[in-house]
Amino acid sequence: MSCRFDALYQRDAIDAVLAGLAPPELIEVRDVGANGFATAAVLARLAARLAAHAPPSRSPRLIDLGCGSGGVGLWLAAHLPAALRGVDVSALGVAQACQRAARAGIDARFSVARFEDTGLPPASAEAVVSSDALYLARDPGAAAREAARLLVPGGVLVFNTYPTVGVDDPWLEELRAGGFEVIEADDRSAEWRDVMARKHRARLDHAAWLTDQLQANAGPELAVSRAMLGVGRPSFLAATRRVELVARRAR
Predict the structure, then answer these.
(1) Confidence band of 202 (pLDDT split at 50, 70, 90)
(2) Is the pLDDT of residue 15 over 70?
(3) CA–CA separation, 182 and 187 (whole Å)
(4) Is residue 180, in this structure, part of any structural domain at all?
(5) What is the domain extent for residue 85?
(6) What's the CATH number where 93 sits?
């Protein structure tokens, strides 16, 4: 099955070139293989929140929604530690996640599924995590209910959203309606904007070099950078917040 996200897992050559212009915060965790915004600080907060809020278990179980190629979930599974299940709509991403888990020798299984219908058993995890993925759900209410279904009573969901500046985060209401209590809503916009602004400014500053290296692929990458920084249009970074959420399923 192919989907619009498959392209994320077919850009090794492009990402290898772009990595040469990345801020140190992103280079530091490049081996994790995250497709979204991941830094050492982001990963540390994810692990700390799961350790602090997930109900204790002799055999902790973690589900990664929108696992992609598995990097963040596998990093967390190794550091907590926990048995990992992951789902993603991209078969290419899932195949890469399986390969990554096998190389790392981590207890993990991955499958192709949607946020709203994972096919996983009910109450099958103490924690559900989603890094730069769940906020893209087409039906947030259904996705929140599915996350609640996957968790044991008192289990936690840890993920991030990108609400518009000046607008209440719509996920807060979806979580409450889905049977969750929101226990943390940590606005990390300043940190995210700083790293992302430096990332995209470096690309625009080296536009000629990128065009030489990437040829036709340079145009789309530079267009994203102009949109993020607001070159000739409103800035996505200025208009958007990054919020990291922790929600507990009702006991």
Answers:
(1) very high
(2) yes
(3) 14
(4) yes
(5) 6-11+28-188+244-249
(6) 3.40.50.150
